[in-house]
Specification:
248 residues, alpha/beta
Length: 248
Amino acid sequence: MRLQGKVAIVTGAGSGFGEGIAKTFAREGAKVIVGDIADEGGRRVADEIGAAARYVRADVSKGADVKAMVDAALSEFGGLDILVNNAGFAHTNRPMLEVDEETFDRIFAVNVKGIYHGAMAAIPAMRARGAGVILNIASTAGVRPRPGLTWYNGSKGAAITITRSMAVELAPDRIRVCAINPVAGETGMLATFLGQDTEERRAMFKATIPLGRFSQPKDIANAALYLCSDEAEFLTGVCLEVDGGRCV
């Protein structure tokens, strides 16, 4: 098993990409802290994984909540090796001047400040372990931005730049930092990105993806598994597009 003996935190793990990552990590031998603000989904995922998982309610925009996840990893499983910053928030696809300030603040609090809180809480634990991996789930929106999601695009561009900067700064600590840039996926956020989840809008978006489909949680989970495993021990600062060719 590729993550045998590892302890991981996955945020936003109660559904979608995070659920896929948490379950894949557990299948490959990791102990997993399932973090989410949705109690029902988070508890369900932890229960379905079993003894190798614990659910911790956490809003990643709050430093105390993120610290609680790290504390749970240390107390329940004895350390921390992997942090996956997957929790995300987006505004509905619409002109940028129609996005109110409260929504803007929430996007950056979750998508950018969440990475900050994760670093503050997790890096000391990883330094104590002698190594670690931080994986940020960014987006193709930060690489190939398009109208209608301007403020979300900006938050994911920030996540990509932060990933690369963290990778260089933390390399002496043997803490690798990478990102995954998924294309829109078959998750609960799809309607947000499309504006309206209709067959016509789906078809229009799929036409921009050379491989002809949306991403699936398993696509992101498999990429995350590789980047967080020892097989990728010489990779840091990598921002991997898992996008069916959309960014080409």
